Amino acid sequence: MRMLFLGDVMGRAGRAAVAARLPGLRADWALDFVVVNGENATSGVGLSPEHARELLAAGADCLTLGDHAFDQKEMLSFIETEPRILRPLNYARTAPGRGARVFAGPGGRRVLVAQALGQVFMKRPFDDPFSAVDAVLRAHPLGGAVQAVLVDIHCEATSEKMGMGHWCDGRASLVVGTHTHAPTADAQILPGGTAFQSDAGMCGDYNSIIGMDKLEPMRRFVTGMGKERFTPAAGDATLCGTLVETDDRTGLATRVRMVRLGGRLETAIP
């Protein structure tokens, strides 16, 4: 299978980049399955039903969220009606929606997508992400019950993301980090056959501070005082993510590449 994961969509600029680029990429790259992290797509905080529909219409098969999963309150009810949206596995036990789901891929193949929140340096304590992911992987063995497994690990610490990659090695097709909005250059296939990238980066304007217009974050860094709300930067966006190819028999990765298209970070894709 050929699967594309796109990192955190940031505001209007990120949504526009996905809408403009993804339909063509699905055709040009013969993509079988696309996952998009959409947790910052609405004004940089959360995802509204309207913007979720836009991303799905652009060609996403599944949308993952994150620590801002329910900052847009409409998502509390909408996620119960839209099975293509996943919130983190280890969010509050009473949270609506699901943190993992098996999707139908082309040719009868089955794709498991799961997301977990990290614990290190996060604003609130979440349940153990490793045991949460382990239970899902045990219930859906790669190469057996499912033909591909994608895990989105949404957290601050690079070490925790790498830990999740090795925890899932041999049991997932791709483990990819989100949340920091800074793409890493460590796309690799781990010894057990799982593709890994510490952070996919964001789909947004990189003439910014992690996707936000620079003025207010800089003011707070320099003075320690806030004056206005953060607003997403609205310039030309870069589409960032990870492209992985897998073996249909084992579900393990045969090739992985970082994706950076348009904007300030565009990189040639070999």
Going by helix content, strand content and strand pairing, the class is: alpha/beta
**N-to-C SSE string, H for helix and E for strand:** EHEHEHEEEHEHEEEHEE
CATH top-level class:
Alpha Beta
Computed over alpha carbons, the radius of gyration is 17 Å
What is the residue-averaged pLDDT? 95
User: Could you give the count of β-strands?
Assistant: 12
Shape estimate: globular
Number of domains: 1
Kindly report how far apart the N and C termini lie: 18 Å
Cross-sheet strand order for the largest sheet = 4-3-2-1-11-12
For the record, the CATH architecture stands as: 4-Layer Sandwich
User: What's the CATH superfamily, by name?
Assistant: Metallo-dependent phosphatases
Task: Classify the beta-strand content into a percent band.
Answer: 15-25%
Helix fraction, binned, reads: 10-25%
Largest sheet, strands/sense/barrel: 6 strands, mixed
Q: Which residues form runs of ≥5 with pLDDT under 50? A: none
Summarize the structure.
Helix content is 24%, strand content 23%. It has helices at residues 11-28, 49-58, 75-81, 129-139, 158-168, 215-223; strands spanning 2-6, 33-37, 62-64, 85-86, 100-104, 110-117, 148-154, 174-178, 188-189, 195-197, 239-246, 253-261.
